[in-house]
Structure formats: C-alpha cells, structure tokens
Amino acid sequence: MSKKVFITGASGCVGHYLIEMLLEKTDYDLYLLVRDRRKLQIDVSDRPNVHVIEDSMQNIGNYQALLRTMEFVVSTAAGWGGEEAFVVNRDKTIELFSSLDPQVCERAIYFSTASILDSHNQIIPEAGELGTNYIASKHACLETLENSVIRDRLITVFPTLVFGGAENKPYSHLSKGLKDILKYVPYARFLKTDGSFHFVHAIDIAQIVTYLLTAPSGPVAPARPARLVLGMQRLTAQDLIVQFCEYLNLKVGWQFELTPFLVDAVIKLFRIEVAEWDRFCIAQRHFTYDVVSPETFGMVSQYPRLANLLAEVK
Predict the structure, then answer these.
(1) Of 3, 99, 152, 267, whose CB count within 10 A is highest?
(2) What is the 3-state secondary structure (H, E, C) of 21-49?
(3) Phi and psi dihedrals of 158, rounded to 5?
(4) Do 84 and 212 sit in the same domain of this protein?
(5) Residue 7 in 3-state DSSP?
(6) How far apart are the first and last CA of the chain?
(7) 224 and 240, same structural domain?
(8) Confidence at residue 223, expressed as pLDDT on a 0 to 100 scale
(9) Residues facing 73 on adjacent strands
(10) At what angle do helices 13-25 and 202-214 cross, to 10 degrees?
(11) Which residues of the chain have pLDDT under 50?
C-alpha cells in the first residue's frame, strides 16, 4: 500500500521542486495544501495519487483525521510578517505536528530558517529576543516541536539563502532579485567587507528531502530529532564580488574597506532607523554553519557554485 505524504506550502518555489521529484522517484500519495490551486504550476489532473487541498494553514485543524493517517509530513508553509507570522509559523505549525499519530507517522520534516542558529547549529537566544516576527515565530516553534511527542521522528531542515525558479515554477525571493543585484555590481566591486554565507538551490533542497522520505533508517539517515542546515560550501563577501565580476567581465581593482565601525558611523550620521535584529546581524557578519548538501547523502548537487546560478540569469 502506497505511503501518504502531507505537504504544506506546496505552491511555493521549494514545494514545486519537491512535488516534481516525489512524482518522479516514488509512488507516494501526495496531499498538497495550497491556498490557491491556480498557483500550482504542475499539471496533476491525470495523477490519481495527487490530492490538492485548497485551504490555508489557519484551518489546519479541519484536517486532524486526515493527518493521523499520514506516514510523512513536510511543512514548508510560512507567514512572512505581522501577526500572521506567529499564527502560521508557530501556532498552526505546532497544531499540524500535534495532529500526527505517533503509531503511524514515520518522519516529520519541518522547514525552519538558518537565521535562528549559530555557527555550531545551536539556537541563538537573540532570535527569540530581537528577531522579526518571522524569526521569533520560527524560534518559538522549534523549541516546542523538539520537545513534542514526535521529536524522535522529527527532522528540522534549515535552508540558508534559497535560489530557484523557472518558467514552470515560481521564483524564490532571491532569484527574483538576482538581476537587480547584478546592476549594482559595477559599484559594489569597489567595496570590501568581511562576511560569509551559504546558499542552496531549491532543486537541491528537494533532492535532500526526497532522500529523507525514502531512505531507510541506518547509518546514513540522521539521528532524530535532527537539525540539518542546507547549503553549499561557504562563500565570503569577497568571493561573491569576484564571481559576480567574472560573470559581468569586470575587473576587481582597488577596494575601499567597509568596516563595522564605518557602517555604524553612517547609520548614526544619516539617522538611519535600524531594528535591533538588523544591528545584531550587522555585528554578526558571518552566517556560516555545519551544512549538508546532496553530496552528504551520496547524491550530486545541481547547483554547487554561484556560477551555476548566474549561468541561468536571462
């Protein structure tokens, strides 16, 4: 008998790649929660194993009976701001996972954000104290889920900077803005700053999640509750400038060093309003973690380098 997977946020960028990959590699029954079925750009009309549920996370309580029959749940849905962030990211997400039957559910995959972790993948208290509604709600939800009845089968994934999208898939926020970012490279190449980060493409996220939903328990499968930060190799701010300039055939010459002291001076001089969380991030500068990629699980990343992303910019 085919196993059942309940997916929230299915009409988003990551959701599209995940659905496509699950349809290709499994015979699972997919239950897709979408607010507007018209945003689902994958034709599932001839797929008897795909069930589209047009509703919002606010009404997740209406599906408790269905959720108790699920072997797998993948929650990618997110509220990005305002009160909705706490309702969706904390209250309704906790309600979703609380509805699972521990006797039936095999794996529960929760999408959080790497922003709430330090370089050793530990939760930082500042995320709850200073974070935006989105950050603070993710922080509160994780603490609750890791102490819940499904903690022994919970896998939390923390995407770093997410790129992705195509003609038949919605673009991530970063991919939407990539062309605009390139416009500023001719000026940004004269600046030098200390910082580093990771990125990951949505198709590589889909590869990893599909593996987690199909791999048997064993030495390669993560211990649970698990924290997996999804990202490619660390990039410095200088690497970013160099690779952007290579793509645009620009030279990197003399650079003015933009120190934290100088940034703080500019903020004060021009009386720029900066939230406490933004100040914390400016001081942090390095957003690096112990990351996993498709290679961690014996697969091959489709977008291992920034150059792979830039090659697709129209």
Answers:
(1) 99
(2) HHHHHCCCEEEEEECCHHHCCCCCCCCCC
(3) -120, 90
(4) yes
(5) strand
(6) 44
(7) no
(8) 58
(9) 6, 108
(10) 40
(11) 218-220
267 and 184: one domain? yes
Q: What is the DSSP letter of 296?
A: G
In a domain, 185, yes or no: yes
Tell me if 13 sits within 8 A of 164, measured CB to CB.
yes
> CA-based diameter of the chain, in Å?
66
Is 78 inside any structural domain?
A: yes
d(CA 175, CA 314): 11
Assess whether the previous peptide bond of 225 is cis (omega < 30° from 0): yes
Q: How many domains does the chain have?
A: 2
- Token pair of 155 as six digits: 């896998």
Conformation bin of residue 247: beta by default, left when phi > 0, alpha when psi is -120 to 50: alpha
From residue 54, how far is each of 32, 111, 303 by CA, in Å? 8, 21, 32
Which domain, by its residues, includes 182? 176-196+235-284
Q: What is the pLDDT of residues 125-156, one digit of tens each?
A: 999 999 999 999 999 999 999 999 889 999 99
pTM above 0.85, yes or no: yes
180 with 138, same domain: the answer is no
Q: Which amino acid is at 195?
A: G
* Per-residue pLDDT tens over the stretch 55-66: 999 999 999 999
Both 67 and 215 in one domain: the answer is yes
Q: 102, 54 in Cβ contact below 8 A?
A: no
